[in-house]
Predict the structure.
Amino acid sequence: MILIADSGSTKANWCLIGREREVLYFGTEGYNPYYVDSQYIRQSLHSALPADVPRAEVTEVHFYGAGCEPSTEMVISQALGALFERAAISVGSDLEAAAKALLGNQPGFAAILGTGTNTCIYDGATVTHSIDPLGYMLGDEGSGSYIGKKLLIAYCREYLPLPMRQQFLSTYGLTKEKIMERVYKDPLANRFCAGFAKFVKQHLDDDFVRGLAEDAFHDFFNALVCHYPGYASYTLNCVGSIAFHFADMLKETAAHYGMATGRIIQNPIQGLAEYYQQAMTVESK
């Protein structure tokens, strides 16, 4: 049996693939090794795992997540090793998960557009080139936090047309002072900003609001995508809530830069399940 996880900092999606390639999906809280230690993960998972996950029969665990890199992967692997004593444990980044879910064994370009942003070139097995997105304060162009931040700036500076300002105020009840306090004092300000991408999506019929989103995706291409050599020879493949909900606008922007669109999915876990099911099929032949 193979157990797969795609984890963010707040929630994780899991998939158990049985001997006959049957699939069980379930969720737990997220485990970012920058924020939680092995003991916490072990105790949390021990309580959260469904009863129909036979730990002793799991032979492989593949954990992909935010914050997973060589310096932190031991936090995850120790916790999983204690729970799945007979399993081989592998730990990878959320970007690797996105690439495998979107491209499988094929080379290409993959991106994450969710709360944050990430991009890479993938050779069909590993990530070979990635441009640092720099996080929400310096970069993350095209992400939910970036789009939300553009809306907040327009609202606080009163660039947002009056009807939209009134709609924003009635929806959130936030003054400029409250926004400034949340952005500069909240340790999770990126999530706070990303929450306003929903307002942008709901009001794309307003020319000004639509322009904010369009600018964000142009910034995404100019800051990240177009800096990959020969980027236009690849298709644009994206995973994440922003990519999924703004798919039409993202496709239009890609076409503007001479890039065809491939797959756009909201969540990588199903694609990861297909990736490992295919690997099981190949191994059984």
In short: The first helix runs from residue 38 to 48.
